[in-house]
């Protein structure tokens, strides 16, 4: 199985030498300044995983050990969480900032993403209830003033489209943002929650079915069915515990700047590189 190591900064030759020994990967060599690959390394067991994590993390290196000879074009769909994955912010936290409740809402968001709050529906209702009475124009302000794409997002999406993949944005956040991103980025499918708005004000309620972990996984399956693909032909990227179920059905799962519970279960974790680090995992 090949070993891929990547960084935002040039990888030191001493680190390459150490990794050759650590991972039993004598063929590890640089591919440019910031990516190193080896055709084969030791089997990825708990010992090697822990050793690679201990060596790479303080050096701001991301690593992956994946099945050999996989191409991006072998996949049919790339599915992404929105908040803190495709974009750098948690939209609900930024909305709450406009009514002076960001700290309170952020604490609930963090606990939910770490898996400490197991009822996502209830955690979302609690947070949305705190937004009651806020002017709906705040949603546009959050999008225009605070929402930023994660590093490498557009390059990753462009390469995925060029390889024939379709794109899905599935979020426990809000339709107001996913629809704007769909138009901006040319995404194929989106799914998110709808904030109830009456007379231009947020009511503190969510309309319809809440997009929780089960709904996210179902949405990935439905998108795959719509394009005639198997879920194992999907790449799923996320950061929180409510992404785990959709990541579990995918052929490749990527934990992006993710909580520890997600990093532990994903195929690969990107703690430092951008979303376009995905492209370095493949031969094509």
TrEMBL record:
<dbReference type="Pfam" id="PF12710">
    <property type="entry name" value="HAD"/>
</dbReference>
<dbReference type="InterPro" id="IPR036412">
    <property type="entry name" value="HAD-like_sf"/>
</dbReference>
<feature type="active site" description="Nucleophile">
    <location>
        <position position="81"/>
    </location>
</feature>
<feature type="active site" description="Proton donor">
    <location>
        <position position="83"/>
    </location>
</feature>
<dbReference type="GO" id="GO:0005737">
    <property type="term" value="C:cytoplasm"/>
</dbReference>
<dbReference type="GO" id="GO:0006564">
    <property type="term" value="P:L-serine biosynthetic process"/>
</dbReference>
<dbReference type="InterPro" id="IPR004469">
    <property type="entry name" value="PSP"/>
</dbReference>
<comment type="similarity">
    <text>Belongs to the HAD-like hydrolase superfamily. SerB family.</text>
</comment>
<dbReference type="InterPro" id="IPR023214">
    <property type="entry name" value="HAD_sf"/>
</dbReference>
<protein>
    <recommendedName>
        <fullName>Phosphoserine phosphatase</fullName>
        <ecNumber>3.1.3.3</ecNumber>
    </recommendedName>
</protein>
<dbReference type="GO" id="GO:0036424">
    <property type="term" value="F:L-phosphoserine phosphatase activity"/>
</dbReference>
<dbReference type="InterPro" id="IPR050582">
    <property type="entry name" value="HAD-like_SerB"/>
</dbReference>
<keyword id="KW-0479">Metal-binding</keyword>
<keyword id="KW-0028">Amino-acid biosynthesis</keyword>
<keyword id="KW-0378">Hydrolase</keyword>
<keyword id="KW-0460">Magnesium</keyword>
<comment type="pathway">
    <text>Amino-acid biosynthesis; L-serine biosynthesis; L-serine from 3-phospho-D-glycerate: step 3/3.</text>
</comment>
<keyword id="KW-0718">Serine biosynthesis</keyword>
<dbReference type="GO" id="GO:0000287">
    <property type="term" value="F:magnesium ion binding"/>
</dbReference>
